[in-house]
Amino acid sequence: MKRIHFTDQDLMRVRVAGGIGVAAETLDSLKLLHGRGIGLGFRRWQVAVRGRLDGRARPLLALLPSLGPHVDAWSLAGDSMCIEEAVDRLLGAPRKLLRVEFENIRFRPADRAWARNLVDGDREAWLQVTAALQACHGVAVAPYGGGMRVHLAGIRGAYANAMTEGGVERLLGQVCGPLLRWRPPVLEMEHPRDEDIRLNGRGLVIAPTVFSTGGAELMMPMLDPAEPPVLAVPTVTDALVGGTLWDGGGASAGQALEDLLGRTRAAVLESAAVGRSTTDLARRLGIAPATVSHHTSVLRNAGLLTTRREGKAVLHTVTSMGMALLEPGSRPV
Q1: What is the mean pLDDT of the chain?
Q2: Any idea which of 1-5, 132-136, 301-305 has the lowest mean pLDDT?
Q3: DSSP-assigned beta bridge partners for residue 9
Q4: pLDDT at position 327, please?
Q5: Are 289 and 273 in contact (CB under 8 A)?
Q6: What is the C-alpha to C-alpha distance for residues 202 and 295, in angstroms, rounded to an integer?
Q7: Residue 238 CB coordination number (10 Å)
Q8: b or e along 310-325 (b: 16 or more beta carbons within 10 Å of the residue's beta carbon)?
Q9: Which of 29, 84, 141, 217 could hold 211 in an S-S bridge, CB 3.0 to 4.6 Å?
Q10: How many degrees, rounded to 5, is the angle at CA 138 between CA 118 and CA 236?
């Protein structure tokens, strides 16, 4: 069992993220697809996806050995929900981070020489990984992107409401389930290894996930011990939740949204589905902050976005009407 120890300062620094990023979700989807005992919430997805990747996922499967830990895609590729940005992060990962991430991975004998090339930063080896990542994303994740964005935004909103109504104690109580127990000031996680983790004032980031199903996972920042760990919390727990995800709108819905709003404005709305600041939107979309402000103003006036200030940042989130546009199967509430 892992025990996460909170101080009063840690409790003050708990925050909620929009997700763990598209690279980590894609790798988790591959684990799920090739694992056993898939839950009812993923049966329809499994039937739709299985057999469509063939050998294209082979380099990613090499990063998922049957014994021991797997490569942490969140650490290497970040939490971006843009696959192109995740690929750029992977290709630019520092050598020091690669060594730390790969040192405990027990690769299959046939993959060890190739894995050493990855640790050495060999570009050709990493291009094989990113090509596999994009192929897997295109088959297993991208067609359901609209439903995933709506789902993760809804979970994040529920977490935020729990914090507003009852503080961090209410939030930690809400994320707990069979494999997580909040016994103040300690959060207990089922884990094969016994370990005590002290946050030491860093706080904790709680991130809802779609394809992570094996229980909550604590992801540690490997190069910066001052950064808070991320607790990835599975959220697809039954067939009813899964059904709303696998009805997603797919590429045609995305094209229709672009036709309605224009490409840049549609991209702003989609990126804000998990809550983004003006600066974050500008960086992720490669446009000027002033351009972001113009588009968010138009979307806000149309009732598709809300804006609030958090410290020095201006945070934009999508309204229920905006969510209905992002996911045609949804309805404003």
Answers
A1: 85
A2: 301-305
A3: none
A4: 60
A5: no
A6: 35
A7: 10
A8: eeeebbbbbbeebbbb
A9: 29
A10: 95
Q: Which two tokens stand for residue 290?
A: 């002033």
State in Å, rounded, how far the first CA of the chain is from the last one: 40
Alpha carbon distance 93, 314 (integer Å): 29
Angle at 230 between CA 33 and CA 103, to 5 degrees: 70
CA separation for the pair 42, 75 (Å, rounded): 25
pLDDT of 29 above 70: yes
Ordered strands of the 305-310 beta sheet:
276-277, 313-318, 305-310
pTM value? 0.74
Q: What is the pLDDT of residue 248?
A: 54
Share of the chain above pLDDT 90, in %: 36
* Percent above pLDDT 70 for the chain: 92
Q: How far apart are CA 11 and CA 267, in angstroms?
A: 34
Q: Per-residue b/e over 80-116, b at no fewer than 16 CB within 10 Å? A: bbbbebbbebbeebeeeebeebbeebebeeebeebbe
Shortest CA distance to 271 belongs to which of 243, 229, 299?
A: 299
Do the Cβ atoms of 41 and 211 come closer than 8 Å? no
By the 10 Å C-beta count (0-12 exposed, 13-18 middle, 19+ buried), 218 is classed as middle
Per-residue pLDDT of 220-235, as tens digits, reads 888 888 899 999 999 8
Helix or strand or coil: residue 220? coil
For residues 105-131, average pLDDT = 92
- Rg over alpha carbons for the chain, rounded to the nearest Å, is 20
Can you tell me which residue has the tokens 């797997």? Answer: 70
35: its two tokens: 């694992």
Beta strand spans in the chain (E): 2-5, 15-16, 180-183, 186-189, 195-198, 205-209, 217-219, 230-234, 276-277, 305-310, 313-318
Mean pLDDT of 75-89: 89
Nearest Cα neighbor of 3 from 249, 225, 230, 188 is 188
